[in-house]
Design goal:
Two copies of one chain form a homodimer. Chain A is of the alpha+beta class. Chain A contains four helices and 16 strands. In chain A, the strands form three sheets. Chain A has an eight-stranded antiparallel β-sheet. A five-stranded antiparallel β-sheet of chain A has the order 6-10-9-8-7, with no helix packed on it. A three-stranded antiparallel β-sheet of chain A has the order 1-15-16, with no helix packed on it. In chain A, strand 2 and strand 3 form a beta hairpin. The longest helix of chain A has 12 residues. Chain A is globular. Chain A starts with 27 loop residues before the first helix and ends with a strand. The relative contact order of chain A is 0.24. At the A-B interface, helix 3 of A face helix 3 of B.
Chain lengths: 304, 304
C-alpha cells in the first residue's frame, strides 16, 4: 500500500520507558499501549463543552488556568442557552472556523441575534497569565521563534517568557479562541473560533485562547469554505446550525463522551515527544531531529 | 465585526519598497497593490496541471527543478489519461488528501486499477537535489529546526543544507507529493497527495515533493474525512471522482485558468515577509517578530 505515513516507529533517545527493552524501538502506538492508567487524565466535565451539530458532537475542553474569566463566562453563556440555534458563520481555508454571535457576519440571520441574560458581553483580555504553580509546564527540548519557551501545560500547547513572567496558550490546530474587535477587551465568548489549518502562531498573545477541540475536529475542518471576505458565509442557508452547546457536567452521564487525554507531565509523554522528533521506522530515511510544538500530537481516547 | 484577522497592516522594517513614504506602514494588501508586473510570473502551462473534480478545478504547479523525473512522469501519466475516472481515496484530518492508484486503498474499486501505457510505475527517489544555479533561493531572515536554511525557490517553500549541498521542497499546506512504499524508490506519481493540515515537515527529505496546489485547495481540504485507517475511505461511493487531469498547455487557451504567482526573488516579496513577521495594525497588540516558513503566504491571483 503506497501511502504517506503518519504513525511510525521511533527511537526513544530519552529511553525512560523502554530502556530495559532489547527489542527494536517501539512505535508511538506501542508507547501509548504501554502507558499506565496514571499517564492519562479524564477531560474535566466542569470544563468540557459539547457542541452538537447535525453531523455530530464537537468536544471542547476549556483551560480555566489560562483564561479563568472567559472560561467562566462561556459556561454562563452555554448555561443560558446562548449558542443553541446559532450557527458556524465562517470557514476560512487554512485558518479558522468561527461560530456564535450572528452580528459578526453581515450575511447571518440578524433575527437570530440574542440578548444575553446573565453572562457578560465583553471581558478584559486574558491573552497571557502569570507563570505560577497553577500553570504546570513540560518544556520541549526544541525551541521556536514565536516564544522563548514552548511546551505543554496539562495537555495544552503553551508558550512562556521567563523574563516577563507570562505564560499563554498557543494557536495550534484545534485551539479554540475568543473573537474580538480591535479593542483588546472587546471579546467575551459570544464569538468563538477553532484553528482549522496551519498553526497561526502570530495570533498568540493577541487574543484570548480558552481551550482546545479534543474530539470531532473534522466536523469543523471539513465544512465548506465560506466564499465571502475572510471565509464568512454569504447566505444563512450555507451555515451549519448549532443545535446546542452544553457543559458536560450538566449532561446525564449516559449521554457523555468519556474521553481521556495523555498527561503531558510524564515519562511516557517525554518518550512520545522523542518519537516524534526522530522517526526511524523503515519508511523514514531521514529523521528530522526536531518537532514543532504544533506537530506534537495531543492523544485523546475513549475512557474504558 | 468581531473577528480573527488574517490580513493586517505591517511595518516594513526592511523598508525597501515604501521607504520614501511618510505614511503609516502599508498592509499586505497594499504591498501587493503597489507591486509591479515584473513582481509576478505566470504559472508555467507546461508544468501546470488541472485536476477537474465535480466541485471544480484544482490547479497544481509542478516544480521540475526539484523533481525532474517525477514531474516528467506525472505529465506522461496525465497525457495517457491515467488519472481520469480515478478518485480521491483518502482524506486524513490535519494531514493529507491522497488520490490516484486505487491499489493504495483496500476499499477502492479495484476494477478501476489501470494499466500504465507509456509512463513508468516507479522511479528513483528525488527527495533532494543538488544546490545549483538552477535552484534560486531567497533565504528567510528566520530559522527553524527542520532545515539549516529555509526560504523560497521560484515561489516554492524550500530547505537547504550547505554542508551536504542539497536542497528540497518543504511540506507546507498545499504541497503535493508522491506516495510511496517503504522502499525509497517505490513511488512514481500514480499516487499523489496534498497537505491539508499543519505542515508535516518531518516528511521533508523522506518523500518526493513535486509541486504545490496553487488554486482550489479548499476542494481537497474540505472533503469529508475518511473513516478508515489513516483516513482512507471505506466505501467507493464516499470517494470524490476525478473527472480528468490535464496539462494546462494541452487545454485550449479559452479554458485555461490564467494565474500568476508573486515572485519570491523581489524586494516586494522581502517586504511581504517582513509584513508577516511583524503585524502592527491596530488589531495586533504584540508583533511576533518571526514567521514560520509555512506561514509565509504564496500569493496567487488571476492574470489580467
Amino acid at each position: 500500500m503506497r501511502i504517506v505515513h503518519k504513525l511510525s516507529t521511533c527511537v526513544l533517545a530519552f529511553g525512560v520507558v523502554f530502556a530495559v527493552s532489547a527489542k527494536a524501538p517501539p512505535i508511538m502506538a506501542d508507547i501509548i499501549a504501554a502507558s499506565k492508567p496514571s499517564d492519562w487524565r479524564p477531560l474535566d466535565p466542569q470544563n468540557t463543552l459539547y457542541m452538537e451539530l447535525p453531523t455530530g458532537r464537537v468536544v471542547i475542553e476549556l483551560a480555566p488556568a489560562f483564561a479563568p474569566n472567559h472560561a467562566q463566562n462561556i459556561k454562563a453563556l452555554v448555561r443560558e442557552g446562548y449558542f443553541d440555534g446559532l450557527a458556524v458563520i465562517r470557514s476560512q481555508d487554512n485558518y479558522v472556523a468561527q461560530w456564535g454571535d450572528p452580528s459578526d457576519d453581515e450575511a447571518a440571520d440578524k433575527s437570530k441575534v440574542k440578548a444575553i441574560r446573565t453572562a457578560k458581553k465583553t471581558l478584559p483580555a486574558e491573552f497571557t497569565v502569570a507563570i505560577s504553580t497553577q500553570i504546570p509546564f513540560t518544556r520541549l527540548p526544541d525551541a521556536d521563534g514565536y516564544a522563548p519557551q514552548i511546551g505543554f501545560s496539562n495537555g495544552f500547547a503553551s508558550g512562556r517568557d521567563p523574563k516577563s513572567g507570562r505564560a499563554w496558550l498557543c494557536h495550534c490546530y484545534g485551539a479554540v479562541g475568543v473573537g474580538r474587535d480591535n479593542d483588546a477587551d472587546s471579546g467575551g465568548g459570544t464569538s468563538l473560533y477553532a484553528v482549522t489549518g496551519h498553526a497561526p502562531r502570530h495570533l498568540d498573545r493577541n487574543i484570548t485562547v480558552v481551550g482546545r477541540v479534543m474530539h470531532g475536529m473534522e466536523l469543523l475542518s471539513s465544512l465548506p469554505r465560506g466564499t465571502g471576505k475572510m471565509g464568512f458565509y454569504e447566505k444563512p442557508e450555507q451555515m451549519m446550525e448549532i443545535q446546542s452547546v452544553r457543559v458536560a457536567a450538566d449532561v446525564p452521564e449516559a449521554q457523555r463522551s468519556n474521553f481521556e487525554v495523555l498527561r503531558t507531565d510524564t515519562a511516557t509523554f517525554t518518550a512520545l515527544v522523542e518519537s516524534r522528533r526522530n522517526r526511524r521506522e523503515e519508511w523514514y530515511k531521514v529523521p528530522a531531529g526536531y518537532v514543532e510544538l504544533c506537530n506534537v500530537p495531543v492523544i485523546v481516547r475513549k475512557k474504558e
